[in-house]
Specification:
Elements (H helix, E strand, L loop, with lengths): L1 E12 L3 E7 L5 E7 L4 E12 L4 E3 L4 E8 L5 E7 L2 E7 L4 E11 L4
């Protein structure tokens, strides 16, 4: 049976750092970054599910990522669902702490 453990890779550019972490289906992970105004931020990610049967992480259809980004005034810059592997991009318009929140999401194939 497939475990509910999620594997997510996230690369934030230009912060030039990468993250690797595990999440459960209902988890939300948030990061706060001090960013100057008029800066383009790009995050690249991959969502994988651990299969107990094969003991490996695999990409599965029907699993994606929801990304919420708020500016220093707590206004939403981006709130969007993405598929299991991809990239999000946004440009800051205010200097200060920006909050980036990620949560795995299940969706139905149409």
């Amino acid at each position: 049976m497939m475990s509910l453990k999620w594997l997510i890779y996230l690369f934030l550019v230009p912060l030039a750092s990468s993250l690797y972490f595990h999440m459960w289906e209902t988890d939300v992970k948030c990061f706060v970054e001090e960013v100057p105004d008029e800066t383009m931020i790009s995050g690249k990610y991959k969502v994988e599910v651990y299969e107990d049967k094969t003991e490996q992480f695999v990409i599965k259809d029907g699993i994606g990522m929801h990304v919420d980004i708020k500016d220093p005034e707590n206004k939403i810059i981006l709130s969007k669902y993405y598929q299991n592997e991809g990239q999000f991009v946004f440009t800051t318009h205010l200097p200060g702490e920006h909050k980036i929140c990620l949560s795995p999401q299940l969706y139905q194939m149409v």
